[in-house]
Amino acid sequence: MSGPVRAQLPHSTLARFRTGDASALGEVYDRYSRSVWAVAMTVTHADHLAQEAVQETFIRAWNSAASYDPDRDLGPWLLTIARYTAVDLLRRELRPTRGGHEAEQDAVVEPPDLDGAWLSWAVQEALGQLADHEREIIRLSFFDDLTHTQISERLNLPLGTVKSRSYRAHRRLAELLAHVRDSPPAEDDGNQSAPRQRTPVGGARGEGRDDA
Hints:
By secondary structure, this protein is mainly α. The protein has helices at 11-18, 22-44, 47-63, 74-94, 114-127, 132-143, 148-155, 159-176, 178-182. The longest helix has 23 residues, at 22-44.
């Protein structure tokens, strides 16, 4: 059985969002709130801050909606706001006040990794379009770093079945993430780009791995 496929919002909805339509904001929230929460959690590692970041992100997005280009994908734009918002909240949370006598000291928080946020979102979107058994193979192979034999034992499946499912799952995921793999690394004022994140796509991790 396939997992839920979260379709892109219609262009008309994005256009209404840009003009400040409240119903469009509701549709945007329903579509992206889970992804926004996931990005916030990667920054804050605290559910209460992530929940606050979700609310603040959509407030900021609503206030900045006029700057959004409805011809472009809303996801990266929104998750960029989410990342900055989460960093702001984490910095505020970690800023100590010592009896009101000493100056507050800003906590050291790494700057937002916008490429990483976009990549994480793209991978999650692609995983959501895989069948349940394919997504499980990817999770065990890539995220849990298990070999085909270990996956076979974990799922109580024949090794040949695991290998064939792994091949199909990685091939399907590679197709869904072709736009990520083919896009050039972002450049920053002429400086060298940071290394691309490892992704569970054929070519980056291959199609699962056998035991050494």
